[in-house]
Hints:
Elements: H1 5-20, H2 25-41, E1 52-56, H3 58-69, E2 75-79, H4 85-88, H5 115-120, E3 127-132, H6 140-156, E4 163-168, H7 176-191
Parallel strand pairs: 1-2, 2-3, 3-4
Helix pairs in contact: 2-3
Amino acid sequence: MVFTKIQIIFDLRHIILNLTLGASFAGLIAYEDMSAATFLSQQPEVDSTRIAAVGLSVGSFRTWQIAALSPHIAAGVAVCWMSTRVALMSTGNNQTGGQSAFTCTHPGLGPYLDYPDVASIACPKPMMIINGNDDDLFPLESIKEAYAKMHKVWGSQNVSEKLITKLYDAPHEFNLAMQKDAFSWLDLVLKNKSR
């Protein structure tokens, strides 16, 4: 697909207008990810039933978010971004210092849905959520609490086997062992899907 200068200018105006009228950066990212998933699903060389999302760190947040929001995502592997909001809002955590926090904050959503709640909207899709137990950004107990909350949702829909959560002896990274497990699991989950 070729974009014209007029389309690009229109898109930039749309973005600027939305951000100045109260739309959030996180909302814009979610919208762009949904648009990308839709675009990918429409390509003739793509098997639209076997599209997966994989991401590390903020890419992990975007992975479970797009799996929850888009019917075009069949499965996801989210690496090193799962916790409870309360734990991440503690003094000294990167969520309180700006940086990537703006990409993960949907204004007004916090009182109603925690991060594992939003991720659980992806149920009953197959999801692998993995973290390092030596990750300084995500407190270990809050990861476990978030995992338990998600397992309750998949269990309530009788699809417990479709949610894999795992802690690795690792910091904030997607190391070779994690990659091997993730891509082997994706192969298994997606191989039986077809057009």
